[in-house]
Amino acid sequence: MKLTVIGQWGGYPKANEASSGYLLEHKGFNLLIDCGSGVLSKMQEILTAEKLHAVILSHYHPDHIADIGVLQHARFIQGILGVPLDPLPIYAHSDHPYEFSKLTYKKITEGKAYVPQKTLKIGPFRVQFLLTSHPVTCYAMRIEADGKVLVYTADAAFKSDFIPFSKDADLLLCECNFYCHQDGRNAGHMNSYDAGILAQSANVKKLVLTHLPHFGNIENLKKESAQKFTGPIDLATHGLTFTL
Questions:
Q1: Which end of the chain has fewer CB within 10 Å, C or N?
Q2: What pTM was computed for the model?
Q3: Could you give the CA distance from residue 216 to residue 206 in angstroms, rounded to a whole number?
Q4: Ramachandran category for residue 28: left, alpha or beta (phi over 0 → left; psi -120 to 50 → alpha)
Q5: Exposed (0-12), middle (13-18) or buried (19+): which is 192, by Cβ within 10 Å?
Q6: pLDDT digit string (tens) for 182-226?
Q7: Structural domain boundaries of the chain?
Q8: CA 86 to CA 239: how far, in whole Å?
């Protein structure tokens, strides 16, 4: 599996960047995980919209879904220009029927509801879900292919269920919206210590901090997490890639 960070900012994108979006590739299959503001623009530096095979969404906050509409129109316009395209499946939970209904657009995209209690197969990937502690319904994902494991926390306050869910993952893509001295639980987010504790407790091979804050020196997030996790740590940045 190859993971490429498209966008890493929480809430909204910094200038010329993007909020949450991650491209996962394996055996020629291209899966976009979340599709926040700016993701379509930044993704096209790496992969065009018509080359996606599927999208999966953690939840319906704008910083994770804002570019779904423009993704739909990009594929619509490419179809008009003669590019043959099948409907793009967009996998998401259906707890919010109105938001879920917007994922189906003409014959361009098709919303597909995942059942969080069941393993979902998308192309070469097998996806398991964990309900997170967040102000709206949100699911973390454990994605496996050919014996390699990526865990994406999505937006989440720390809870002990994350430890077995993330056990022995090759890469933990962990939200980190607060610094160690801040308590993000009421906002439904983790701080740098939470991320490090989770990575250490779950014995993951690599920790990547994402959903980053717009204040403070974000390099400190890495230093703070390193006080709790002894393995390698990276800050997510656009274009950063990892091969699992």
A1: C
A2: 0.98
A3: 24
A4: left
A5: buried
A6: 999 999 999 999 999 999 999 999 999 999 999 999 999 999 999
A7: 2-243
A8: 27
